[in-house]
Protein: Dimethylallyltransferase
Organism: Dokdonia donghaensis DSW-1
Amino acid sequence: MKKVLFVLTSHEDLGDTGEKTGFWVEEFAAPYYLLKDKGVDITLASPKGGQPPIDPKSNTEDAQTPATKRYFADQETQDKLAATIKLETVSQEDYDAVFYPGGHGPLWDLAEDKNSIALIESFYAHNKPVAAVCHAPAIFKNTKNEDGSPLVKGKTVTGFTNSEEEAVQLTDVVPFLVEDMLKANGANYEKVADWGEFAVEDGLLITGQNPASSELVAEKLLHKLSL
C-alpha cells in the first residue's frame, strides 16, 4: 500500500483584513478521495497539529463539488482532519509522496515553515514526488536544491495565476503572488485561462493551477506512484 502525506495550513487570518482563510475544501477533498478510493494510505499533518482552518469561502454553495459534499457527509474523515499530526514529527522516510492542498493559508505559514521546507527538500532528494495545487505551490518559495539553487529553477510548474488573484480581489492582501514568485525562482511557469483545469508534471514536481485542477494533480500523482 502506498503512503501519501497531506500537509495542510494552520494559518487562518487573511492578512490584516479581519477575514478568515485557511485551506480550500475542494483542494483537500478531491485529491483525498481519489487517492483513498484507490487504496492509498493517507496521513494528515499541519504545522500546529489538530484542526486546520477551513477557508469560509470554500464552504459556500457555489464552491461545492461532489468531493466536498462527500466530505461534509463523512464524519470519519472530518474527525481525521480535526486530528492532524504536527509537521515537526513527520519524516519523509515513512511516505512515498507528499501532497499540499491550497487555499490562501499556505502563503503565510507553509511558504516560510522550516519543517515544511526541510521536508520537501528531503522528499525531493530521495526521489519522491511533491504535489501542490492552487496557492500551495507557495511552498516552493524557499525550497532549494542541494546546490543551493531554487528547487523549481528550470522546472515547468503552475499555480494560482496573477489574474485569478486579481479576480478574487486579494492581490494587495496576499504576502506575495504565486505566479510572480515561481517566475522569480527561475521556474518555467505555465497556465491556461482563469479557472481552467490545468496540471503540470515535471520530474518529481506535480502542480495544479486552481481548485478545478485538484483532481488532475491527484491523478498524476497516483499514476507516478504506480510506476
In short: The chain has a mean pLDDT of 98. The radius of gyration is 16 Å. Helices lie at 25-36, 66-72, 75-81, 105-108, 114-125, 162-167, 178-184, 214-226. The beta strands are 3-7, 41-46, 85-86, 97-100, 130-133, 156-157, 188-189, 199-202, 205-208.
